[in-house]
Amino acid sequence: MKRTINKVAIIGSGIMGSGIACHFANIGVEVLLLDIVPRELNAKEEKKGLTLENKEVRNRIVNESLNASLKSKPSPIYHQDFASRITTGNLEDDIAKVAEVDWIIEVVVERLDIKQKVFENLEKYRKPGTLITSNTSGIPIKFMNEGRSEDFKKHFCGTHFFNPPRYLRLFEIIPGPDTSKEVLEFLNDYGKKFLGKKSVIAKDTPAFIGNRIGIFSIMSLFHTVKEMDMTIEEIDKLTGPVIGRQKSATFRTVDVVGLDTLVHVANGLYENVPSDEAHDLFKLPDFIGTMMENKWLGSKTGQGFYKKVKKEDGSSEIKSLDLNTMEYRARKSASFATLEMTKTIDNVEDRFKVLVAGKDKAGEFYRKNFSALFAYVSNRIPEISDELFKIDDGMKAGFGWEHGPFQVWDAIGVEKSVEMMKAEGYDPAAWVTEMLETGVKSFYTVKNGNTYYYDIPQKKHVKIPGQDSFIILDNIRESKAVFKNSGVVVEDLGDGILNVEFRSKMNSIGGDVLDGLNKAIDLAEKEYQGLVVCNDGKNFSVGANIGMIFMMAVEQEYDELNMAIKYFQDTMMRMRYSSIPTIAAPHNMALGGGCELSLHADKVVAHAETYIGLVEFGVGVIPGGGGSKEMTVRAADTFQKDDVQLNRLRENFLTIGMAKVSTSAYEAYDTNILQKGKDIVVVNRDNQLAIAKKHALLMAENGYTQPIRRKDIKVLGKQALGAFYVGTDQMSAGKYISEHDKKIANKLAYVMAGGDLSAASYVSEQYLLDLEREAFLSLTGERKTLERIQHMLKKGKPLRN
Amino acid sequence: MKTAYIVKAYRTAIGKAPRGVFRFKRPDELAAETIEYMMEKLPEFDKSRIDDVIVGNAMPEAEQGLNVGRLISLMGLKTKDVAGMTVNRYCASGLETIAIASAKIQSGMADCIIAGGAESMSYIPMGGYKPVPNYELAKEGHEDYYWGMGLTAEAVANQYKVSREDQDEFAYNSHQKAIKAQAENRFQDQIVPITIDETYVDADGKKKTKSYTVTKDEGPRKDTSEAVLNKLRPVFADGGSVTAGNSSQMSDGAAFVMVMSEEMVKELNLEPIARMVSYTAVGVEPRIMGVGPVKAIPKALKQAGIKQDDLALIELNEAFASQSLAVIRELGLNQEVLNVNGGAISMGHPLGCTGAKLSVQIFDEMRKRNLNNKYAMVTMCVGTGQGAAGVYEFLN
């Protein structure tokens, strides 16, 4: 039987419940969100003369939680309009409505007795066959369905989302004793395909996979910080981006999550894993006890390991907790010679070897830390998982690590690491020794574009299941490259489709990337059917290489600069005007030039988490790679007879003028960066490239013909120009923008108006591109523009001057 | 020169825009029903003797377009015989029409004219649907000719050093005066009850109709305080002082008077309410349009041959607290007689209707205070750098 999910009920509207509700709304599912009825009126309700019978009062808890969630940042929802997909209610008046849903998810307080009561109540209304799962992070699944019917038990299991549900990709599925195989398989598939998650079927062991290893890792650092007499700044420096983990690293992350939440899970582990070899580690160190007593729980109480204090001059300063004195003091910068050595190593994977070889305290730290981690994870097999890749998946998707423990182990070398572990007093699990003895020297290997993992029972490398629908660039970069330069690798994806993968620093677009794009289009036009532009960098692209532009501008090499901009424009235009279909597949940041490339592709297949926009004002210029032109064209294409056309042009003018960046791909439809009916959104990032390829193929097979160059773009001339000049003057008089912003905006206005034409006229794209280039060049001659570019290059932030 | 008297004066309640009671009532209907009500008060009067209907309106387009004055004449008088026109001097439109009517009658071109104004800011956005500034003007640095009014209020606050605190205090007082006046039922004699038949789709998606009558101004807020006003953020400039709280409210409303020659008044045996003694409009710098009355008031007083102290009551339109205070301070206006029942900050500002609405209000208040044969003034600042002021002599 095919199962479909049209409607879900979420029981419990706390931070997790509301977050999960929003994520279902994100993917278009209708949500019923329920919570308890308040026991008494609040002051506001009393003043309004309401009683406990009023709907407004009865739904207060759920409504307040959901609204707080919708307002929180980063937003739990792709687009505020999607919130209308969520209906709220309460557990007394609306519980019968669970009969209409396809899946019930329980997200109430983590107490077994309460959960059991909720399930007992839900069973009265639940239709047989309906999925019913618990989002517990620690309570054993087997205890929760006691006393329930057979049908209930068959359709019951744990589904553990990580906070925040929209952003963290781990989705643990924990079977209960009676969960049917069909249900597990369905959830595993649904998690990936629909929720965009990394589904991991875990075992019903304490804290499952992600939290078991994650809490271990944090707790072990809590002890290390004291044992090695280090500061929290030092630990955060060593456990942050340098090893591919989040910027908030360890202690700052705990502040954000809340110390009480962490303590709750750690205590649970301490109680429930008495035979764990690291049992003592889950015992809270004294300083945590003090912090709990003092309510130093992190962001939620205003202070934790770090504290933001207001200085006398009104500016704020972040202080950090000295674990010896338990007092807040000025932050100390942490520096280590070993870290200096990794500065030139861009690829995080290549750093681990260097880090554990360090001769200083940092080296000592890494040897100790990784040894403990490797020993712990190897010993968790088969306790928490039979397959090692699930532990890596859990840490990557649930805790934002770029590399899972076994991958780091591979990067250092399995044998080498075992030596290191022994020196540090740790032993790997027996299966690791056995693996090495049989001559298998790594946990993973890549064959024919697929990743294989070491399967312990079979004692050999086995293909990781479920990757057939994916295309993994890391795995094909070497074997399928058809062209390569310093900026790109062009890979053959099969079926006549090429991919251009940016490989430049921060995936910025410079001459080499443009060469690569042209080369790829040349190749595709001659020998292939279509082209995709997709990469696995942290960001799709942060934009044009402004360092190069800065150099030419400072040297006043305006002819060269003109040529460079023209080359950029021409390349973007080739994305549109080639004989093959082109697809841009952006993810994360797609700014400036990265956005312009997407604007010119025949189709955009964007990941849902795409932050896309034309941000050129931040560096003192207008979009010069066809972006200003394209937004003019897009406005003109929406003009209707007798419509106020100027207002439509104004919206696109503001998209550029306010440097709007979408906070999701869906928001980019509002700014006309993405277009409905043409561009699409993919929720599962792993699947994005494969989907993009399919679209390229489909377009090719449908008989793609090169579009004819356009000369029919309606521009409004003076009519628009006058309105824009008045608008920018008001913004500047109101001090919302600087004089220089006004100058840039007026240059953009001139381009988007098509110049000072007496009346509305029809022009070609090249006419607009020439205006755009001219305006761009004139701005690079401005001192304040150069200051902005320089500031961005130095500090990575825009300057307002 | 003949003498022109005002013999009837009514207004609708003022609704909030764009989400107030009159969002379900078109401006032409508001105006027509006000005129109908006026006609009911003159049951014997032969409507064909009216020479013209002159309607002030600041954004004459869409529902207010197509020479809405003529349509209002047809709708309100229910006869084809009376002409109609639309007059636009922005916020002075409703006062301007009374001046035009008075002047026509004084010169013998007409004997009876209905004049006033109507505006729905719920239906038509400020600035209209398609503002298209002249590029050549903008290029020459005259962008400020087209500035939004809020920005000009900021410019006035800066140039005349009107503090945020003073603006908020002024706004608070406006509300207090209006609430007091409402509690004393000071407006009920002048307000035309407007019945609204609202057809809407209810929560279950079913079409429904409900009917209600509006007789009360929607603007004044009991719950406001200086503390609340102080918390509002400036909306027209970063770091500015003009907020939604110390600016006039956007509003919907209509107000009309009947102006008649002395001969016809005598013939019909009517009681004149007042006569317009003088009226003037002046130009000032567009970027500080709010100070328009500083120039208009002395000129109108001079035309009338009276002194500032002779004014028994003044209605100074509260476009913004900043410009109101600048005008008051520059001219030393007597605050005891100024905006005694609140102003546009609390009561609302239906642009093209305002001049007529303030006239209707001031006649009623003069009557309630028995200020027979005393002078009253209605004055306002006007967009693109203008000011207007009119002097009335109250008769009965």
Automatic annotation (TrEMBL), chain A:
Protein name: 3-hydroxyacyl-CoA dehydrogenase
Cited InterPro entries: 3-OHacyl-CoA_DH_NAD-bd, 3HC_DH_C, 6-PGluconate_DH-like_C_sf, ClpP/crotonase-like_dom_sf, Enoyl-CoA_hydra/iso, NAD(P)-bd_dom_sf
Pfam families hit by this protein: 3HCDH, 3HCDH_N, ECH_1
SUPFAM superfamilies (alphabetical): 6-phosphogluconate dehydrogenase C-terminal domain-like (SSF48179), ClpP/crotonase (SSF52096), NAD(P)-binding Rossmann-fold domains (SSF51735)
Transmembrane segments: none
Keyword check for DNA-binding: no
Segments forming domain 3-hydroxyacyl-CoA dehydrogenase C-terminal: 208-307
Pathway connected to this protein: Lipid metabolism; fatty acid beta-oxidation
PANTHER family registered for this protein in UniProt: 3-HYDROXYACYL-COA DEHYDROGENASE FAMILY PROTEIN (PTHR48075), 3-HYDROXYACYL-COA DEHYDROGENASE-RELATED (PTHR48075:SF7)
Species per Swiss-Prot/TrEMBL record: Mesonia phycicola
UniProt feature coiled coil, ranges: none
Domain 3-hydroxyacyl-CoA dehydrogenase NAD binding: 7-204
Sample GO molecular function, one term: NAD+ binding
An annotated GO BP: fatty acid beta-oxidation
UniProt cross-references to CDD domains, sorted A to Z: crotonase-like (cd06558)
Keyword tags: Fatty acid metabolism, Lipid degradation, Lipid metabolism, NAD, Oxidoreductase
Catalytic activity: a (3S)-3-hydroxyacyl-CoA + NAD(+) = a 3-oxoacyl-CoA + NADH + H(+)
UniProtKB/TrEMBL annotation, chain B:
InterPro entries: Thiolase (IPR002155), Thiolase-like (IPR016039), Thiolase-like_sf_Thiolase (IPR050215), Thiolase_acyl_enz_int_AS (IPR020615), Thiolase_AS (IPR020610), Thiolase_C (IPR020617), Thiolase_CS (IPR020613), Thiolase_N (IPR020616)
Domain (Thiolase C-terminal) ranges: 271-392
Pathway listed: Lipid metabolism
Active site: C91 (acyl-thioester intermediate), H349 (proton acceptor), C381 (proton acceptor)
Thiolase N-terminal domain location: 5-263
Pfam families according to UniProt: Thiolase_C (PF02803), Thiolase_N (PF00108)
Entry protein name: acetyl-CoA C-acyltransferase
Source organism of this protein record: Mesonia phycicola
